[in-house]
Design a protein that fits this description.
Blueprint lengths: L3 E10 L6 H19 L3 E9 L3 H9 L4 H18 L6 E4 L3 H16 L3 E11 L4 E3 L18 E10 L5 H10 L4 E2 L1 H12 L5 E2 L1 E2 L15 E2 L1 H6 L10 H4 L6 E5 L3 H14 L11 E4 L2 E3 L2 E2 L10 H8 L1 H11 L6 E3 L1 H31 L11 H22 L3 H22 L1 H6 L3 H22 L4 H10 L38 H11 L13 H9 L10 H4 L10 H5 L3 E12 L2 E10 L6 E5 L7 H4 L3 E5 L5 E2 L5 E2 L2 E2 L1 E2 L6 E2 L14
Parallel strand pairs: 1-2, 1-11, 2-3, 7-12, 11-12, 13-15
Antiparallel strand pairs: 4-5, 4-6, 6-8, 9-10, 13-14, 16-17, 16-19, 17-18, 19-22, 20-21, 23-24
Helix pairs in contact: 5-6, 10-11, 11-12, 12-14, 12-16, 13-14, 13-16, 14-16, 16-17
5'-O-[(L-methionyl)-sulphamoyl]adenosine (MSP) binds next to strand 1, helix 1, helix 7 and strand 11.
Length: about 675
């Protein structure tokens, strides 16, 4: 890979404010730029606004505004929003920039000279929402646009055509030679079969409105919005030699809705404008579409959640982490607020935040807040460092393949392994028996791994990564010209000062969760059931939403059947993943074992369980179990108190414990 990384987002239409969908694309692009920055590549992030077209002209006229002034005003929220989501761009292009208009004019002339633009006339069905013509076949019955569900308009006009058909074979050969030109691969197949189906020349100018880039030497025409919009990826990059050096784009990032424009028209336009195959974009990535709480995003339904409101309520990093982790990048996905809260508490708070906290607190106790002097590594250290190397390799491969969700999965395997390592290596026990050397080795190893983790998570959660680094005594990430991806653990010097431990991801407790769900959770829908399912819990939460239209059970007339419980009752159970740290027999009680279980809290929980007929105590140590964590404490006599209960199945002499896989960190909520 080259030493540069140029990534773009679509230039967004200004007829609506930035929303979660456009934020998703922008965050993904920022994450990839940051990752490549860590790998020592100079990055360039281009975004902007698409301001021409009939749609804008109509809205401005309806409001009695000058179109130019209206466009300028509507572009501002985009320009301002992305840095607030920690997506700083290197250049913000507007299709109404004088420089853009001038350069597109020059490109038009070049393409005309090459014989690829010719004048003709066109009659067809036009959807203003899409700014595109449709064939009758493509429209839904009644001449309805399949995307906007509004009637397409019959338009006849004199127009310039672009000779797209001429490029059919070159495009097909491009796709064959460069299988990663369109990603994910399944999308490439779609594009290929579309092009194989036969391309027709496309109309690239309009005479029916005037809000566009004027066609050179033919003032009756303005350029088709997609013509000038696609070239907005190029025009700003021609402005300086530094920017030119970034051409072509490594990735044009977008949603699947506009793939065809990018995978078919765009390379054909570039070839026509005189670019060689090597000067075509390296990859076009089409990600999936998001729904919100299972519902299509739409203004009319009021569920276009504002990205900044989300960032404010949950934290920018939680939003970024959730979007990049929970939705397989490339596939459609649902933005689910309950799941977001779950991931905040489990992955960020319990797994990563807690790891950091535990290690720092122990280091404070054992080494007075200084980086520990490490002794010889033992098997446990070697195994953890191997996990780290494996995780770092897998995460890099995933980021390289534009699969941030997989990268995070790999990084969280390391986080899980590090938590397990602390459980097993038990630095507090070494400290208690006076073995400061061993305790220091454990804590030093954990701190090194935390340092590596802070680097790897930085592309996705930059603020938290730097906060973590400050706590473990490292400088914030600064991308430079060297590859900073952790491959091996570099030894830090003993005695280096560490920072102060503080929670990086404060827990969202039940009360806050209820409030956030009321504000951002699913919008009640009459078709939803009113009891007995998680969806029903969503509706009852909704009653707190201002102006919400939740139907209460009484109002809807359906009382819960006696054999079932409402979801809210189930939700009262605090089920958590626990790791058994210690297990002992209880003198005089042959069925009981006394356990100490880490459920992600600062101190392990004392538990008493009737497991002695089925398990040897030593077999339980290290097991990942499910703990009912909010059960009233129960006394067993002789001062024994159980603060929770384990889930198990079977008769008391042949019990099976309910367990979870190794990636669930202690404290992870079970739901
Ligand atoms: N102006 C054109 C793009 C021209 S690029 C040369 C355009 N603009 S848009 O404002 O409609 O933005 C479309 C893009 O917004 C999608 O491709 C995608 O990146 C993002 N999304 C809009 N809604 C979305 C979802 N519901 N889910 C995910 N992304 C979505 O098309």
């Amino acid at each position: 890979m080259s030493d540069r990384f140029f990534i773009t987002t679509p230039i967004y239409y200004i007829n609506s404010a930035p929303h979660l969908g456009t934020a998703y694309t922008t965050i993904a692009a920022d994450v990839l730029k940051r990752y490549h920055g860590l790998r020592g590549r100079a990055g360039f992030f281009l975004t902007g606004t698409d301001e021409h077209g009939l749609k804008i002209e109509r809205v401005a006229k309806a409001r009695n505004l000058s179109v130019r002034a209206f466009a300028a005003e509507m572009s501002v929220p985009f320009r301002e929003m992305w840095p607030k989501l920690d997506c700083p761009y290197d250049y913000f292009v507007r299709t109404t920039d004088a420089d853009h208009e001038k350069r597109v004019g020059e490109i038009w002339e070049r393409m005309k000279k090459n014989g690829d633009l010719y004048l003709g006339s066109y009659e067809g069905w036009y959807c203003v929402g899409c700014e595109a013509y449709y064939t009758e076949k493509e429209l839904e019955p009644g001449g309805i646009c399949p995307l906007h569900k509004t009637p397409a308009e019959r338009i006849r006009e004199s127009t310039y055509f672009f000779k797209l058909a001429k490029y059919q074979d070159r495009l097909l050969s491009l796709y064959d030679r460069r299988p990663s030109f369109v990603q994910p691969i399944t999308r490439m197949n779609e594009v290929k079969s579309f092009v194989r189906g036969g391309l027709e020349d496309i109309s690239v100018s309009r005479t029916t409105f005037s809000w566009g880039v004027p066609v050179p030497n033919d003032p009756a025409h303005v350029m088709y919005v997609w013509f000038d919009a696609l070239f907005s990826y190029l025009t700003p990059m021609l402005a300086t030699p530094e920017r030119r050096a970034f051409w072509p784009a490594n990735v044009h990032m977008m949603g699947k809705d506009i793939l065809r424009f990018h995978a078919v028209y765009w390379p054909a336009f570039l070839l026509s404008a005189g670019f060689s195959d090597d000067e075509l974009p390296r990859a076009i990535f089409a990600h999936g579409f998001l729904t919100v709480n299972g519902q299509k995003m739409s203004k009319s339904r009021g569920n276009t959640i504002q990205p900044l409101a989300l960032a404010e309520a949950f934290g920018i990093d939680t939003l970024r982490y959730y979007l990049m982790r929970a939705i397989a990048f490339g596939q459609d996905g649902d933005f689910n607020v309950a799941e977001l809260i779950g991931r905040h508490n489990a992955d960020l708070g319990n797994a990563l935040g807690n790891l950091c906290n535990r290690v720092l607190k122990q280091t404070e106790t054992v080494c007075g807040g200084k980086f520990p002097l490490q002794g010889e590594p033992e098997d446990l250290e070697r195994a953890l460092l191997e996990e780290l190397a494996k995780g770092a390799r897998a995460a890099a491969e995933a980021f390289d393949a534009m699969q941030p969700h997989r990268a995070l999965e790999a990084i969280w395997q390391v986080v899980g392994a590090a938590n397990q390592y602390i459980d097993r290596a038990a630095p507090w026990a070494a400290n208690k028996r006076g073995d400061i050397g061993r305790a220091s080795t454990i804590l030093g190893t954990a701190l090194e791994v935390l340092g590596a983790v802070s680097t790897m998570v930085w592309p996705v959660i930059p603020r938290s990564a730097d906060a973590m680094r400050a706590q473990i005594g490292l400088l914030p990430i600064a991308v430079g010209d060297h590859d900073a991806w952790p491959v091996a653990v570099t030894s830090r010097r003993a005695g280096e000062p560490l920072g102060v431990a503080a929670p990086i991801f404060p827990r969202i407790d039940a009360e806050k969760e209820a409030r956030l769900l009321a504000e951002f959770g699913p919008i009640p829908d009459e078709s939803m059931p009113t009891s007995g399912s998680p969806a029903a819990a969503g509706t009852s939460d909704e009653s707190a939403r201002t102006g919400g239209k939740a139907v209460s059970e009484a109002a809807s007339g359906s009382a819960p059947s006696p054999a079932t419980i409402p979801y809210d009752d189930f939700a009262k159970l605090d089920l958590r993943v626990g790791v058994v740290l210690r297990a002992e027999r209880v003198a005089g009680k042959d069925k009981l074992l006394s356990l100490s279980v880490d459920v992600g809290e600062p101190e392990p929980r004392p538990l008493v369980a009737g497991l002695a007929l089925s398990f040897k105590p030593e077999d339980l140590v290290g097991m990942r179990v499910i703990v009912v964590a909010n059960l009233e404490p129960r006394k067993f006599g002789k001062g024994l108190v159980s603060h929770g209960m384990l889930l198990a199945a079977g008769p008391s002499e042949a019990l099976t414990l309910v367990t979870v896989g190794p990636t669930a960190a202690p404290g992870t909520k079970v739901k």
